[in-house]
Backbone:
């Protein structure tokens, strides 16, 4: 598992090096950051291809603090490898998007690299402690990036994010410790052993329901499920594009991934008790955040609400729990990550040119920046669920998979597609179409260097839209029909392969 | 006699000396006396050089205390010293290293303070060593006489350390407040000890334990006595409702003293609590556990809520220190060995955090400093090193991974959840949430605010090295917790060999 360690620790060490180095030349710093962010992409893709060819996932498990059963364990399943690829890919694009950052580039790229490494670590940890600690480790640079390099209201946004996510993670910690302490006479933090333990000797129903509730609350706050979403739109509106891309696109899905990795397989009774509420929260998130997005005049805030709203589908699908819906969650995490990153990247560019994010003041930018307009439209259309782009596949799978279980909720959720089409297409019209207004006179289009990361993201989005099999066909163990049996068909010796 | 034989006998002598039971304690005493003597007979001896000598001797003693040969004792027959009133067991040794580390850290921060302090530098240093000696003695207390003597020793040296700047009215006020509070606490404690002695007929912890196990655990007089003793110790660790001296004393006392009070002195209070509760009153656990739980909850809530609105950094540290005391008391309220081990780990984490916050304050201090948070606005632009060290310290105290403070809270949370004390866990989380907010306010001032700071000393290279080493340790122990956890849980016997 040397590769996985490099994917995690190379960016972290490079980030620490950048923060501490007396090096001043911005050109070298940028090149260094880019180099460091490209290597994990290559390695993650290599690991992904190996898994696709049918190699068994390798696991590293080393005892860390022996007396309390804490270990440093890494390993990827067919889901988490995709998220690691996504994290390093979006990380590379984030470095490219902010390549020309002039304000303290050394610290900026240093923090960005720390964040990338932390995210990869969270998705590849198989030990509850490091699973939690890596996520938290990735959050700190996020707060700092928002607080220093953000927009005009950055301070409030950063403080709000810190408090909400901080408290949310604490609740999560409580739940995870609950899972640890209930795991027998010699409690362990090792996730596969925990799953095995809870499969052979499940907790009583009440304990399961309480623990599931706590975990749902914690993970839910991290994914910004309504009504714990208050931090998200402000945070994303003020964040520098790179931080918004990484957090909205990748780090946020940690909550969904965490539910799939810990709560659902370990607490089947808790899960079945919370299925309906979870679906309701999902639909509430889709509709409420969607309606609020309709009323936004600030482009980035609208994108923020849109991102919140799209995560609702994932909760609906998790609640339904059918294999098709579950497949949809995986595709959704990827497609949403790519489209949100693309959207924030282009919105950040248009803000840097037009100096405003207010949609009513903008207009006609497509005449001045056709490339940006095209790329933004791709992100927006992906959000609308246009066939041919990744999000369509995800939403279709989720609707088909959930309809059998929750017909009413799914019918309501479909309405979310209509809402998001309305605000996203309105945004395209307001910002890029129509006559050029005052703010749009002095702007230029993206340079090739700025287009490159957006092209990469858009290309992968189209790839998933047309060939979803390429990501779902890894290590082909499909989950069984009955969601209650999820926990029973895991490879006992190895990685939880959801 | 050939050379090899001389070498052998010298080696043997050295080993014998190293295994003397109170070697380190006597060396500390010798150091304190030497500093006093140097001050008296060579008044022109450079203060700076003297501080360095003290730092080096603390470092030497710390290394000595960690040496396996010094620590290896026969665990079956615990080494008793002074009759049965003092004993050397693994936890005495663990705490001894902790106190020496705290003394080393406090001396490092005293360096800039001693330099621009006009008078009393020599006395200050020797009292500092004596205070550390008192704490080291607290670690091995095995009866109530010894407890009272060591505690008074510590308290009396602390009075002087608090009020040493006798031309500064704030410092004098702090000294007098601390004196009155301390005297009251001692009086309550003596009263409690007499009650316990009257009922049990002994002052020895082990004898009390045997007496209670014989079916006498229900006596109301013993309970009352224990409550009074706990109150006396509660003053030392600043537990609610005996906390109210903290903000004023912290505000008035010199910075090194603040560091000593909030780390060493607090730890001494905790080790005495562990000794009393675990060695003597374990059979009455059902009585004191809920009381400690309630006090811990009240302490956390009070400290966190009061810290929310503070504008003075020293007072903020005072209130947050109250809140941290509450968090540590959770380890006692859990009533398990694991809880006590978690508490010791937390003490280490807290030591590193406090040093990282106070070191930059000491380096940044000018004679006119009031330590308002606004004085630190925009510190990042003036001195990125100090700002970074302070931020790491605050973040660690707030308990965010991968820093060491997080793992301390993590262990305590496990300890209380293990005992199904869910209410206390929620209170702990509330405290952590509040601490996120008030520490963040300071970080915001350091990094986000712009302020006109005026002229301040710039940290020299060796100070940067010290800060860098502290930051590195905070990260290292946050990620590789095993060495420190072994130290805290006194599992080192098999580790060194």
Residues:
């Amino acid at each position: 598992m040397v590769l996985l360690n490099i994917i995690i620790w190379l960016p972290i060490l490079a980030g620490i090096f950048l923060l501490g180095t007396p090096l001043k030349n911005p050109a070298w710093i940028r090149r260094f950051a880019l180099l460091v962010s490209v290597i994990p992409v290559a390695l993650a893709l290599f690991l992904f291809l190996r898994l696709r060819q049918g190699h068994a996932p390798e696991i590293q498990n080393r005892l860390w603090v022996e007396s309390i059963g804490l270990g440093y364990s890494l390993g990827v399943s067919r889901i988490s490898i995709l998220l690691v690829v996504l994290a390093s890919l979006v990380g590379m694009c984030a470095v490219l998007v902010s390549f020309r950052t002039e304000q303290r580039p050394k610290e900026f790229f240093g923090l960005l690299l720390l964040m990338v490494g932390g995210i990869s670590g969270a998705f590849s940890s198989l030990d509850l402690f490091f699973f939690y600690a890596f996520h938290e480790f990735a959050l700190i640079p996020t707060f700092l990036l928002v607080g220093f390099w953000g927009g005009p209201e950055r301070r409030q946004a950063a403080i709000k994010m810190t408090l909400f996510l901080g408290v949310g993670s604490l609740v999560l910690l409580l739940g995870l410790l609950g899972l640890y302490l209930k795991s027998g006479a010699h409690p362990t933090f090792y996730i596969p052993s925990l799953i095995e333990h809870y499969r052979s000797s499940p907790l009583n129903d009440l304990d399961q329901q309480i623990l599931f509730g706590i975990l749902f609350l914690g993970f839910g706050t991290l994914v910004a499920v309504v009504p714990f979403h208050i931090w998200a739109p402000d945070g994303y509106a003020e964040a520098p594009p790179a931080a918004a891309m990484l957090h909205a696109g990748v780090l946020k899905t940690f909550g969904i991934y965490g539910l799939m990795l810990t709560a659902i397989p370990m607490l089947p009774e808790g899960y079945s008790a919370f299925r309906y509420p979870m679906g309701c929260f999902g639909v509430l998130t889709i509709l409420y955040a969607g309606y609020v997005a309709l009323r936004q005049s600030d482009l980035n805030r609208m994108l923020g609400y849109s991102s919140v709203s799209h995560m609702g589908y994932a909760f609906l699908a998790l609640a339904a729990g059918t294999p098709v819906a579950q497949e949809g969650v995986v595709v959704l995490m990827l497609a949403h990550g790519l489209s949100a990153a693309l959207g924030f990247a282009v919105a950040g560019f248009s803000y840097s040119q037009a100096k405003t994010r207010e949609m009513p003041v903008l207009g006609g930018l497509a005449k001045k920046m056709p490339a940006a307009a095209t790329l933004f439209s791709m992100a927006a259309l992906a959000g609308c669920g246009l066939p041919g782009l990744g999000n369509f596949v995800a939403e279709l799978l989720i609707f088909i998979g959930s309809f059998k279980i929750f017909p009413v909720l799914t019918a309501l959720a479909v309405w979310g597609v209509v809402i998001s089409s309305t605000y996203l297409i309105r945004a395209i019209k307001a910002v890029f179409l129509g006559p050029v207004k005052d703010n749009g006179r002095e702007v230029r289009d993206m340079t090739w260097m700025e287009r490159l990361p957006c092209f990469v993201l858009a290309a992968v989005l189209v790839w998933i839209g047309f060939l979803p099999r390429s990501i779902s066909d890894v290590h082909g163990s499909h989950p069984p029909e009955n969601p209650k049996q999820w926990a029973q068909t895991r490879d006992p010796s190895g990685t939880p392969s959801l | 006699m050939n050379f090899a034989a001389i070498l052998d006998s010298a080696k043997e002598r050295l080993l014998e000396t190293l295994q003397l039971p109170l070697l380190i304690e006597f060396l500390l005493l010798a150091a304190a006396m030497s500093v006093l003597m140097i001050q008296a007979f060579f008044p022109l001896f450079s203060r700076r050089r003297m501080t360095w000598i003290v730092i080096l001797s603390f470092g030497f003693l710390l290394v000595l205390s960690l040496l396996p040969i010094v620590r290896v004792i026969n665990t079956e027959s615990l080494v008793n010293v002074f009759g049965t009133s003092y004993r050397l067991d693994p936890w005495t040794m663990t705490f001894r290293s902790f106190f020496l580390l705290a003394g080393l850290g406090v001396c490092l921060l005293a360096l800039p303070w001693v330099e621009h302090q006009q008078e009393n530098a020599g006395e200050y240093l020797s009292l500092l060593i004596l205070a550390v000696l008192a704490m080291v003695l607290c670690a091995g207390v095995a009866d109530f006489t010894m407890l009272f003597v060591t505690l008074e020793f510590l308290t009396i040296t602390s009075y002087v350390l608090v009020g040493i700047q006798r031309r500064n009215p704030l410092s004098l006020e702090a000294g007098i407040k601390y004196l009155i509070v301390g005297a009251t606490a001692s009086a309550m404690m003596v009263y409690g000890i007499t009650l316990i002695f009257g009922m049990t007929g002994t002052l020895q912890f082990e004898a009390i334990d045997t007496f209670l196990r014989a079916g006498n655990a229900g006596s109301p007089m013993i309970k009352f006595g224990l409550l009074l003793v706990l109150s006396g110790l509660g003053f030392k660790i600043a537990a609610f409702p005996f906390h109210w001296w903290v903000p004023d004393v912290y505000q008035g006392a010199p910075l090194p003293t603040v560091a000593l009070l909030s780390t060493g002195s607090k730890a001494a209070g905790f080790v005495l609590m562990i000794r009393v509760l675990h060695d003597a009153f374990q059979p009455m656990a059902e009585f004191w556990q809920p009381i400690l739980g309630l006090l811990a909850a009240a302490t956390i809530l009070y400290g966190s809520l009061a810290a929310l609105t503070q504008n003075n950094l020293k007072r903020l540290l005072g209130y947050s220190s109250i809140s941290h005391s509450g968090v540590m008391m959770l380890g006692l309220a859990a009533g398990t060995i694991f809880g006590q081990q978690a508490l010791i780990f937390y003490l280490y984490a807290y030591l590193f955090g406090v040093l990282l916050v106070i070191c930059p304050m000491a380096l940044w201090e000018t004679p006119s400093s009031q330590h308002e948070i606004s004085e630190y606005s925009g510190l990042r632009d003036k001195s990125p090193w100090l700002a970074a060290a302070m931020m790491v310290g605050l973040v660690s105290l707030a308990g965010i991974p991968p820093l060491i403070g997080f793992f301390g809270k993590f262990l305590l949370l496990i300890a209380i959840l293990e005992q199904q004390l869910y209410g206390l866990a929620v209170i702990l989380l509330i405290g952590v949430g509040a601490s996120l907010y008030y520490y963040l306010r300071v970080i915001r001032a350091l990094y986000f605010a712009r302020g006109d700071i005026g002229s301040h000393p710039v940290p020299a290279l060796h100070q940067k090295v010290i800060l860098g080493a502290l930051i590195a340790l905070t990260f290292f122990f946050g990620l590789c917790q095993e060495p420190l956890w072994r130290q805290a849980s006194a599992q080192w016997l098999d580790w060194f060999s």
Q: What stands out?
A: Chain A is about 70% helix and 5% strand. Confidence is low (pLDDT under 50) at residues 476-498 of chain A. The two ends of chain A are 20 Å apart (CA to CA). The longest strand of chain A covers residues 59-65.
